[in-house]
Amino acid sequence: MKPVRFDYKRPATIDEACGLLVSDDNARILAGGQSLIPMLSMRLSRPSLLVDIAHIPELTSLVETETHIEIGAMVRQANARASAMVKVHLPLLFKALAFVGHPPTRARGTIGGSIAHADPSAEIALVAATLGAEIVYRVGGADEIFDASSFFIGPMLTLAPPAGCLTKLCFTKAPAICGTGFHEVAPRKSDYALASAAAQINAEVGLGVTGIYLGVGSVGDFPEPLDVDGLIGTSLDDAVIGDVVHAAMEAVETVEDLHASAAYRKRVATELAIRALRDARDEISKDLNQ
Amino acid sequence: MNDVTLSINGKAVSAATEPRVTLLDYLRDVAGLKGTHAGCEHGVCGACTVLVDGDPVRSCLMLAVQAEGVDITTIEGIGGLGARAGELGIIQDAFCEAHGLQCGYCTPGMILAAEALLSVNAAPSEHDVREAISGNICRCTGYVQIVEAIMLAAKRLRQRNDTSAPDLTPA
Predict the structure, then answer these.
(1) What's the burial of A203, exposed, middle or buried (CB within 10 Å: 0-12/13-18/19+)?
(2) Range of A14's domain?
(3) Do A163 and A120 belong together in one domain?
(4) What is the CATH number of the domain that holds A21?
């Protein structure tokens, strides 16, 4: 037994959870616990109260609307990966989930927990930032919505309101013609990535490419979407992709640690971003040339 | 103190516990089941893997209070039960035969990770096996024989009810 002493509450509603967070400013939300519990064990986190949100039914739903997929904060990563809805409508998230931890951590770890924890190498946060998903928090009885592309501001730092409870993530459904790519380099399978990249290309018959999304993770303090709109309307051949990615990566700040230098991270992220975009392009080229 | 009631290897267990007690410590110190090994105790090594409602979970990354009402399987629940108590299960036997263990510290976690895989995938590829044990670290035996043991167990489980073609040679 290594964590410090704390109280434990298991609210049944979101508002009850928010009330508990307001009642104690050293309270923390416990979702899947796959990041928080190690921090408790190492005493890096010393909360006085844990609010376990696993028993709030609203938070475990996966909902399809006409335009969006809404993923409840407590949806387990393994369940999201097994969901046909995610596979069909959120192909980039589906691809990325295979890189998240490993079967035992995915069985407990949640989509919302990964977003709220905001590890710079988290794959789910990278996909959300790349696609500009909506992150919904409940604060004081009202919903507050954040754009995932600007939500992450540092390592384990977000714009999340104090005493707020993340309730769901809303992703725009991918169009019928959509290509995706996801790559990462890690010291071993399921370890923290040293560099990662996510890409999605949306297209329509007759119109061609309508949107291109690219993001890199693990290289800086937070997952970062890159502006590659310049690729729309081009041939998308390897040379053009390479030029645009190199230019977009110039402004990305990369960090250095024991595992990799900043220059290595930038070089690898650039290459992975190029590969991710090529994968996405190759997936739709058949549909577009019909 | 919080009351925690759960089922461990089919038996109901109930005890009051502090919220900071992990499921790992609850299994070892409250339920007295020492087969679940405490390795790193912060979610890196996989030695403490158990099944929670059939899913592989690291018991050091779950608080006992979170396990209220769930169904846990530990290494003690993998072999023969009742009249066959003390007999090895098919996966355990395959680990012995394929030399899938040496010091044995990671073995309970490896076997439960294998059990979780084989319960949903009767004919896994080597890639599937490596993916299933990707969260479990072995520091002496080496993964090659562990993978062979799981492939052998899969083969035997498939042939268990097939009397027409008994084949017990290693996979």
Answers:
(1) buried
(2) 7-55
(3) yes
(4) 3.30.43.10
Residue B147: both structure tokens together: 């993978």
- Please say if the pLDDT value at position A188 is more than 90: no
The pLDDT of A49-55, averaged and rounded, is 98
Distance in angstroms (rounded) separating the CA atoms of residues B165 and A55: 49
B43: CATH: 3.10.20.30
Q: Which domain holds residue B129?
A: 82-159
Whose tokens are 């844990």? That residue is A50
Q: 3-state DSSP call for residue A254?
A: coil
Q: Which residue of A has its CA nearest to B113?
A: A104
Q: How far is B12 from chain A (nearest CA, A)?
A: 21
Contact A6 B131 (CB under 8 A): no
Domain of B108, CATH number, reads 1.10.150.120
Greater confidence, A45 or B163?
A45
Question: A34-50 burial by CB neighbour count: b if 16+ within 10 A, else e?
Answer: bbbbbbbbeeebebebb
Question: Are the C-beta atoms of residues A59 and A167 closer than 8 Å to each other?
Answer: yes
Residue A287 pLDDT grade (very low, low, confident, very high; cuts 50, 70, 90): confident
Burial of B47 (0-12, 13-18, 19+ CB in 10 A): buried
Structurally, chain A folds into a number of domains equal to 3
ipTM strictly over 0.90?
yes
A7 to chain B: closest CA residue: B19
pTM over cut 0.90:
yes
Say if B112 is an interface residue toward chain A (CB within 8 Å): no
Taking CB atoms and an 8 Å limit, are B41 and A6 in contact across chains?
A: no
* Angle at the Cα of B73 from the Cα atoms of B72 and B75, rounded to 5 degrees: 140
Q: Comparing C-alpha atoms, which of A46, A43, A57 is closest to residue A12?
A: A57
Cβ within 8 Å of residue A270, ≥6 positions away: A245, A246, A249
Q: A194, A186 in Cβ contact below 8 A?
A: yes
Assess whether A92 and A166 both reside in one domain.
yes
Query: How many CB pairs lie under 8 A apart between chains A and B?
Result: 87
pLDDT (tens digit per residue) in B77-120? 998 766 677 789 999 999 999 999 999 999 999 999 999 999 99
Q: Place A146 in a pLDDT band, splitting at 50, 70 and 90.
A: very high
